[in-house]
Write a structure and sequence with these properties.
The structure is a homodimer of 121-residue chains. Chain A is built from four helices and six strands. Chain A has helices at residues 3-15, 21-30, 37-49, 90-102; strands spanning 19-20, 53-57, 63-67, 74-78, 84-87, 106-117. In chain A, the strands form two sheets. Chain A has a three-stranded antiparallel β-sheet with strand order 1-3-2. Chain A has a three-stranded mixed β-sheet with strand order 5-4-6, covered by helices on one side. Chain A starts with a helix and ends with a strand. The model of chain A has no long low-confidence stretch (mean pLDDT 87). The A-B interface holds A 56-57, 59, 61-63, 76, 78-79, 85, 87-89, 91-92, 94-96, 98-100, 103-119 and B 55, 57, 59, 61-63, 76, 78-79, 85, 87-89, 91-92, 94-96, 98-100, 102-119. Chain A binds a DNA duplex (30 and 30 nucleotides) through helix 3.
Chain lengths: 121, 121
DNA sequence: CTTGAAAATGAAAATCATTTTCATTTCTGC
DNA sequence: GCAGAAATGAAAATGATTTTCATTTTCAAG
């Protein structure tokens, strides 16, 4: 576990959810760390190999990462103004777990977001 | 529905499963069709917008496409081999609707995928 | 059958996340 | 301190996808 990996883990802890390599790099720079984008990619790759972070893909193909096993929440995002509300997802968790079990999948995670137009817009 | 889209649909029918844009382009050329890679991408984009093909991502970020199965559904994706299972999401729909209503959101849509490791891997 | 505007087409250039290269710096154990 | 190994990051390379733009095709109206 080298310096870059420690830095990346710490910023992932701060973020608490999914983020892309480029976002994480920006966050690290903004918080005063000195680290190259290359090292962020290398750290994420290595952490992913070691099952310390989950990696998946957004619809546009960009990779996003988060700490494994982190308890997480979901977002309700306004399509118009972009404001977000954190929402509770136990029903969703149950659904995901049931579906995965039904098909024999292990090490299960999920990604879910709800979009709509908020009351103000 | 233009010529390119028809050609792409026909090759997708022939393939019967997922294939990348580049693979589809090669297959079309090999079977004697004259079509540019650009047009393959454009056709896939348009067919995807029209919900005629499903688009998703391999682990390496490359997009793969196939003719849509029937109704609105979600995917259970294997992080290791990329195989997917279409799953039923009525529990998810209910959750999304309830959460949106609770916060006064309108015109609601959602995005959800479950990922894990399939029984074979 | 013309004509002209709109749609379609594709080659080449641009984009952009990610990976690779490679020269330099930092650790390590001795 | 010192040699070799590991880590680092800037810059170049890669590769899928998108955009640009000039050309071709389609097709309805005259």
């Amino acid at each position: 576990m080298n310096k870059s990996e420690l830095k990346v883990i710490s910023v992932l802890e701060r973020v608490g959810g999914f983020a892309s390599a480029q976002q994480l790099h920006q966050l690290l720079l903004r918080s005063g760390e000195s680290i190259g984008l290359t090292s962020v990619y290398r750290a994420l790759q290595s952490l992913s190999d070691d099952k310390i972070v989950d990696q998946l893909r957004k619809e546009d193909g960009e990779a996003i990462y988060r700490l494994c096993g982190e308890s997480h929440h979901h977002h309700l995002v306004c399509k118009s103004c972009g404001s977000t509300v954190e929402i509770e997802g136990s029903a969703l968790e149950k659904w995901a777990k049931a579906m995965a079990q039904e098909h024999g999948y292990r090490e299960v995670g999920h990604l879910a977001e709800i979009f709509g137009i908020c009351p103000k817009c």
